[in-house]
Amino acid sequence: MKNKFTVENAAMLLIDHQQGTIKLARNLPYAEIVQNTRALARTAVETEMPLILTSSMETNFQGLLLDDIQKIAPDAYEKRIKRPGVVDAWEYEDFKKAVESTGKKKLIMAGLTNDVCIVYPAISAVEDGYEVQVVVDAGGSPTTLADETSLRRMEKHGVTLTSTNQVMAELAVSWSEDFGQKIQAIMYEEVLVKFLQ
Predict the structure, then answer these.
(1) Which of 178, 135, 143 is nearest to 35 (CA)?
(2) What is the crossing angle of helices 164-172 and 30-47, to 10°?
(3) pTM of the predicted model as reported, rounded to 2 decimal places
(4) Terminus-to-terminus CA distance in the chain, angstroms?
(5) Would you say the C-alpha torsion 10, 164, 81, 119 has a positive or negative sign?
(6) Which of 86, 89, 109 is nearest to 97 (CA)?
(7) Is 16 a catalytic residue?
(8) 3-state class of 37 per DSSP?
(9) How far apart are the C-alpha atoms of 159 and 53, rounded to whole Å?
(10) What angle do CA 57, 61, 62 make, to 5 degrees?
């Protein structure tokens, strides 16, 4: 496959995985969203991909970013972009500047919720010339219908939809190489272990 996303050419953006916001995601189990988000965060940290975290209105019901993210990526957490309520993170200057500072034109995005917090920045980034993959199962929406309509809207605007396993396998390139071995271990520990017991 040509034009792959790799750990060298892509950045990971985790948007609004907050302790309150996750309660709004009802179309996927809570534990599944957390495990997939953990897998993405670990992949970025352990392969030294650029990782940008952002939150919205932390002092309101949305709350802080998930404890798992804080523990896995303490440096990125300290540098997180705290938005004052701007819905489309791409329209918040500090966030966009942080993305631009990575120098990467391929972006892997995930967040809560797909129907509000991801749909807009994903489309906006594509409009600005970025290649974007949205990891659908590391987020969710209040209803299945809300999720499906946001996914269709993103695809219509050129966003590539993917899953946690799929994007991790793409980043791995080869399970026998250094990055591939790291990613395979993360995938097993965070995602696959429940299927193999």
Answers:
(1) 135
(2) 20
(3) 0.97
(4) 32
(5) positive
(6) 89
(7) no
(8) helix
(9) 20
(10) 55
Write down the residue that tokens 């972009």 correspond to: 81
Q: What is the pLDDT of residues 26-84, one digit of tens each?
A: 999 999 999 999 999 999 999 999 999 999 999 999 999 999 999 999 999 999 999 99
Catalytic residue among 110, 117, 132, 172: 117
- Report d(CA 34, CA 176) in Å as an integer: 27
Edge-to-edge strand order for the sheet containing 160-162? 81-83, 51-56, 10-15, 106-111, 131-135, 160-162
Digit-coded pLDDT (tens) for 88-99: 999 999 999 999
Domains of the chain plus CATH, in order, are 10-196 (3.40.50.850)
Q: What is the pLDDT of residues 97-136, one digit of tens each?
A: 999 999 999 999 999 999 999 999 999 999 999 999 999 9
Q: Residue 152 is inside which H or E element, if any?
A: helix 144-156
